[in-house]
Amino acid sequence: MIEPATKRGLSLAFSGALILSFDTLLLRLIHADPFQAAFWRGMLMFVAGLCVLLVSRVRGNLSLSLTNGRIGLTVAAFYGFASICFVTSAMMTSIANMLVIIATAPLWAAIGATIFLKERTSTRTWWACVIALSGIVVVVWPSLSGKVNGGDVIALLTAWSMAGAFVLSRRLLANFALAPAMGGLLSAIALAPFVQEFSFARPGQILLMTLEGAILVPLALGLVAAAPKYLPAPQVGLFLLLETVLGPIWIWAILGQAPSAYAMIGGSVVILTLLVHSGLSLRSSKKAADCAKRSVSLSASQIAHR
Q1: Sequence spans of domains, the chain
Q2: CA–CA distance from 207 to each of 175, 200, 210, 213 (Å)?
Q3: Is the separation of the CB atoms in 125 and 235 below 8 Å?
């Protein structure tokens, strides 16, 4: 039988990454000033998280928290900084360049978990990261010019921030589903002095911003933030590679920008890698659970015969 915790972690990470893949599409459709978009994105994320917290309290669920102590606030700060960097990068560089750089998050998470948590990252996860990243390089190969701009650097900061959030979440093993929401408030406070115009020019922007900040991003990041409680940080980060593949597909479907043959080939490599890695992880979890049960049964049998 598959370990329930592992199965739950895989479901959380996959669902969150799938929902998050629509993020870049909505940002392109909103077409607002980066600081303005990031401010409202953060504020709406916090409002949504606060509503979830209030409902959970009414139902008697005390596991959710906006803070989780100093470590929790640090995790929230990482998510908030990543949110600012993500929106800013999306406005400054190509989506392909941005997503491939952010896709390095699982590698940074693996390195961070090894250094700071002394957590052994499996060879299988390292290989999955390398193979999946090679597929992403294929996806963006035609658009890589070798010239690094400010948007690319900010995308790298996004990857580092996400990796930091994953590693710290794994250290505390608390419920961090609302950490991105708290991070949204911190990002809004930090950006407020730099926003020149708080109101949007068109009603359509308000609707899309509400969908983006109050529903899609809090739900997606909440699911992803809860996953490290059940899975190693690098494995959770690996699922974010789905956004790199699916993001351009949604842009093609809605905006008519068709993916290239490179995107189709590289995307197939990434998706296949994720499927194989998840399947092997589930099988390993099942074997470990079976061995533990056999060990317990053997010990009980030995005690019974004494």
Answers
A1: 4-292
A2: 30, 10, 5, 10
A3: yes
